[in-house]
């Protein structure tokens, strides 16, 4: 989003219910009314619900709101998650920030959100593109009592929780690509989950569960290398409130985390299978020991992926990158 577009959005947010005329915006930012209109159209294009009424001007509907802890907490049906919350304008990475806070004693459920990350991170040191106002960049501190070996499956559980919350609150059916990417129906990646852990011997001190969801953003708002690969939830004309989505996410995560603590991934396997788009396909898996091509057969109660190779051998994959339709 260009600077000026962000400023126009901010001006509309501050105006609340009031219409702001194109003339007023033009004067404030030293641009013509036509230029204002172009920026408004661009904002509408990425899914911001802006009404444009002749002779009155522009008004941002509620769903385009900025993130505020009080507003999020006011509609939160949780007792632990999100009860302590920090919302930042800019941060390097919410996971890095939450991790440091957890080391300093932040309680279970402590949640960090940022409008923008300058060094959002994915798995294996990969970057996560997190421009201002476009998404939900969120990290939650968990202090589970289960042993270290169960931590990876928590991320699989989270993929189910997030997918369900997106369906409930944003009306979009996303699919899970093993282990924890969420994809739009056309295959573009709309969400990534990164959990980072601090542990001593067999005991988990804490886990930071990081969730990145692209809410607003058109193809051209992504950097060239992500075009065609990444997508966003919002479509012009079907507004999505980030506040409502965060409330739904935290509610789901808390309920599912409770079940997970008692029953483990077993309780989520069916939900995962229902939402998954990986099984039954020919895939390439990139593991540390090289690439294997095979048929994704199933996942087990531990969340491992079982792949049948060309020679008919079944291999258990615990950690890898999955590439769909290799060679096609
Ligand atoms: P990942 O390693 O599976 O995904 C990273 C890869 O996804 C990148 O290499 C790139 O190809 C692609 N990618 C980067 N940015 C985006 C994007 N915005 N949308 C779609 N695809 C993208 C996934 O890692 C885990 C990401 C977690 C991000 C959250 S945001 C809040 C928290 N804080 C933080 O620093 N990370 C997490």
TrEMBL record:
Pfam families, alphabetized: BPL_C (PF02237), BPL_LplA_LipB (PF03099), HTH_11 (PF08279)
Swiss-Prot/TrEMBL catalytic activity: biotin + L-lysyl-[protein] + ATP = N(6)-biotinyl-L-lysyl-[protein] + AMP + diphosphate + H(+)
EC numbers, comma separated: 6.3.4.15
Annotated binding of biotin, by residue: 93-95, 117, 121-123
Domain BPL/LPL catalytic: 70-261
GO molecular function, one term: transferase activity
GO cellular component: cytoplasm
The UniProt record lists the keyword Transcription regulation: yes
DNA-binding stretch(es), residue numbering of this chain: 22-41
Domain of life: Bacteria
Cited function: Acts both as a biotin--[acetyl-CoA-carboxylase] ligase and a repressor.
Family affiliation: Belongs to the biotin--protein ligase family.
Annotated protein name in UniProt: Bifunctional ligase/repressor BirA
Gene: birA
């Amino acid at each position: 989003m260009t600077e000026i577009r962000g400023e126009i959005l901010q001006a509309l947010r501050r105006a609340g219910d009031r219409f702001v005329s194109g003339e007023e915006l033009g004067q404030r930012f030293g641009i013509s009314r036509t230029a204002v209109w172009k920026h408004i159209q661009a904002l509408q294009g990425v899914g911001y619900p802006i009404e444009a009424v002749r002779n009155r001007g522009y008004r941002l509907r509620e769903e385009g709101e900025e993130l505020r802890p009080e507003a999020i907490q006011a509609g939160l049906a949780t007792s632990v998650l999100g009860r302590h919350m920090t919302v930042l304008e800019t941060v390097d990475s919410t996971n890095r920030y939450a991790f440091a806070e957890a080391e300093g004693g932040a309680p279970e459920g402590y949640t960090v959100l940022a409008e923008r990350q300058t060094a959002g991170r994915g798995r294996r040191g990969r970057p996560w593109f997190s421009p201002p106002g476009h998404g939900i960049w969120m990290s939650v501190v968990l202090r589970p009592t289960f042993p270290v070996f169960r931590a990876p499956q928590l991320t699989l559980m989270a993929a189910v929780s997030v997918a369900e919350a997106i369906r409930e609150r944003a009306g979009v059916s996303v699919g899970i690509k093993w282990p924890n990417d969420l994809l739009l129906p056309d295959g573009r990646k709309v969400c990534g989950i990164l959990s980072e852990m601090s542990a001593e011997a067999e005991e988990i001190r804490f886990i930071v569960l990081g969730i990145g969801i692209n809410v607003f953003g058109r193809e051209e708002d992504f950097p060239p290398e992500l075009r065609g690969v990444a997508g966003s939830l919002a479509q012009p004309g079907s507004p999505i409130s980030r506040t409502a989505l965060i409330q739904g996410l935290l509610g789901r995560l808390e309920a599912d985390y409770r079940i997970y603590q008692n029953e483990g991934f077993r309780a989520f396997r069916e939900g995962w299978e229902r939402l998954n788009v990986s099984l039954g396909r020919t895939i390439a898996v990139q593991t540390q020991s090289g690439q294997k091509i095979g048929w994704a057969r199933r996942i087990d109660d531990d969340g491992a992926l079982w792949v049948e190779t060309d020679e008919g051998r079944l291999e258990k994959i615990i950690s890898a990158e999955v590439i769909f339709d290799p060679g096609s």
